[in-house]
Design brief:
22-stranded antiparallel β-barrel, 6 helices, 5-stranded mixed beta sheet, Maltoporin, Chain A, mainly beta, 36 strands, globular, 706 residues
Length: 706
Amino acid sequence: MKKFNYLIFLLILQTFNYAQQKVQDTIKLNKVEITALRSSATLKNLPVNISLVQRREIVENQPTSATEILRYIPGIAIQNDGGITSTPIIRGLSRERAPILIDGNSFVGGRIRSYSLIDHWQIERVEVIKGPASAFWGSDAVSGLVNVITRKAENGYGKDFKIGTSLYGGYQSVNSYSRGRLELEGRGNGFDFLIGGGIRNANNTNTPGGEVPNSQFESNYFDWNIGYSPLENHRFEFSGKYFKNDNVGFPGGLGAPGPPMRVRLFSPDEQTGYNLNYSGKKISNIVEEIGFSAYAKQQRLHIDQVTNVFFQNTMNNNRVIDVNLDVDVNFGGLKAFTALRLSKNSKLTLGLDYLKEHRFGTKRELIVDIFNPKGVQVNKVTPPSGQIQPDSDATSVGIFAVEEWKVSEIFDLLIALRFDNIINEIERGPFFITEIADLYNDDNVFDNNSALTGNIGAKIHASKKSDFSINLANSFRGPDLFSKYNFADGVIPNPDLKPEEGVFYELGYAYKGQKLKLNANFYQNFLNNLYVPVTVDFQGTPAVQNQAVGKAKIIGFEYQLSYSIRALSNISWTGSYIRGKNEITDDDLAFIPANQNIFAVQIRSLNNTFFGRAEGIFTSKQDRPAPTERETDAYSLFNISVGINLHNVFPKSPYTTFVLSTENLTDKEYQSHVFRGTPGNQTRFFAPGRSINAQLIIRLGIAGNN
């Protein structure tokens, strides 16, 4: 292992030397438009804090999941559930307050699993709004929003028909994680298509503290994007996917790793989705852009769980509880917008969103085997199978307006306004637990909540190199169906929850010199009725219930500093500081990540043949846990990677990229403070140990040019 690490280090040195010797054209980066604020826009003049991760970074950093794409963005921590399920925490607020969109379409119904149902090789770029985005996208976007843009083939308008294919492969040693993807791509005669599919398989994760049981997973999936452009500025699209995760272990849980020992599997977890989309640009002198999308998705989740309950002060089984649950969700929606260029320096975007979610009541099959102290089975209980919770529905409608106004050469202004109406409803039965049924009455089985949210931001271009920005916003989160109505393992619903509300401000500064680049942002988020997990007693067993806090405040500071050591090489420092308080009880908020700093050296040859990165990640002790959490220690991680674009070495060869890396180089034993458990971060499994990762991408034909 040491020889292998030395080899990577020598390769990076060689890459650096090669970078010094080569004197060729630098990489040409295309101008990228973002859609995080609804219509297409460029980043430079926007006062809202938006981070962008582009395809080249995704490929070269070789993330092992879609969530890992976000790991270098300051202010974002990865909440890991021990296996494939992981989600981002944006500026100290959990995943429920940072919704994920796929090509601008809402993704609801199971955020704990959402990112595991995305193939990161299919992603073109990821746009992340840090700070409330309710004025642009509606409910839930209290801390931010993640918009995943999937890849498309080259537009086929006015081009001859050509096809190509791509092959992706990867391996991670820490859990023997192998993955692959095959694509067929084509364009011409107005048509374009990108069709792909793949597999993923992983064993249990190895850590310096031992193997994490039940952290394995398997996946297979298929996706497509077919477009037709009758004119250069008009495109119709039909896209969709089928994604199946199977044998997905869910390590930890209440009481883990001690009794009661619980083995929980998602087997299977399936998603099927379809999307019809139209986009038009430069329609007239006034109508700059039009967009319309209709989408529908189904999520089918089967949970197989075995719980061992022991006699007191022994490890002898008293009961073995085998439960099978079906947790299914249907959702879909419409969105439409138009961007109007009412004057040369002004663009007004108007739009409408509609979303419908139907959560089927959980269906259950249960077998309880009962043993005596000598280990002899004395009874078997098999309650009737069937639906144990009522169906529930959520319907939301939102209308919005976003004004981008270039007041002068040195002053840009952005104003957004949105109105949302959200209706939640649960049927009156069945309930299999009387105490849960007793939580509901005529006043809380139906909710109708409305909110008006706004955003105003300004950017001042103090010089060609310096920009100042200020952004003010309020936020809104309507009670979600899961928190209000769904009884889960160890989690009690709260049908009396009211909407969360927030007020937010952010100050930013950016400097972009010839060699030095600096970004710094300070923000405060003032929240009312914030849901926090509270430990409660339910039928004599500890459980968790979301309850509203009267007032809470989150304060944070983020910074990014980089210095160019060659045209395409740099050293960088990024970091963040976040604190959150319940202002009524003075308790610390849950899931507030520890302070983190990342120092990195990134080098690249001037013809983009070789590239490499060495980094140190330094995370402080988190000694301010919430009442449902525990303290976590400080830790330092070191990672190193190298890569080569072989098509630049052998010009006649196909597009081929190979990346090799070692993560957690010193095999450090650690646990992030935001690792998930029930309740809080009480689960005590550790993060992955030293891992060797490899990735190979080969693209043939037209695919090699896109």
